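Example 3.2
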Amino acid sequence: MGPIGTGHDKDARDLAHHRSASRQQVRLAVFQGELDATSHEELARTLDELLETPEPIIVDLSGSRFCSASCIELIAQRAQHAQAMRIDFSVMAPRFMARCFELHEPAPRVIPGHRPLSAGAERKFVHIYTV
């Protein structure tokens, strides 16, 4: 025998469906290697592509060993652009890199010092996921 119905079961199912249907997706860009003059153009293209949709963006730099001042500036500028567009934009970075972002005005939202996410078996510069 199943549970006793309350007459509100359908409403509860509809609410649960609405909550799951309205859950917003997040675009996650996982960068690996060094972000420097040789990768600046690809970084710019990737960030611009991410800003084409209204979903929140997370830029994960935890697998990056180096980030040049020009790349930090580029990411901070795109974060500011996202804010103007009302797109949530966060950067996950190693502590040493997070400090550099904190010096930028206005500073982007930075989540410092976490373990790198696995970017997949392929050794590409960037992997983009929608989660």
